[in-house]
Specification:
With 97 residues, the protein is an alpha+beta fold. Helices cover 21% and strands 31% of the residues. The chain is built from two helices and five strands, in the order αβββββα. Strands 1-2-3-5-4 form a five-stranded antiparallel β-sheet. A hairpin with a 2-residue loop joins strand 4 and strand 5. The chain is globular, with a radius of gyration of 14 Å. 12% of the residues are buried.
Length: 97
């Protein structure tokens, strides 16, 4: 079994956190290294952020993670967003290795 590294990047809005991670994943792929996990991308309606989507970085498949205004049935609030209480259902379709 290989050691696992977990990378979490936090910071203010629009600083390029997601872009940095996407470029890092592409760099690792081009070097022949496999990366697994998720990137939580902002979901937008025009310029308005309406939530977050979880993207499987090994396949590119994206599923809803959180939405504003309680648009996720039985979701729990975190700030102005509601996250699914069934994360295992959301992530069961992701290839997290």
């Amino acid at each position: 079994m290989h050691p696992v590294e977990i990378v979490v990047i936090t910071g203010k809005t629009n600083l390029g956190k997601t872009t940095l991670l996407e470029r890092l994943v592409e760099h690792e792929k081009s070097a022949g290294r496999l990366s697994t996990g998720i990137i939580a991308r902002g979901a937008f309606n025009g310029k308005n952020k309406i939530g977050f989507d979880a993207m499987d970085i090994s396949t590119g498949k994206t599923v809803p993670l959180a939405r504003s205004g309680n648009k996720i049935k039985n979701g729990f609030p975190a700030g102005r967003f509601y996250f699914s209480v069934k994360n295992r259902v959301i992530f069961s379709d992701l290839n997290l290795g």
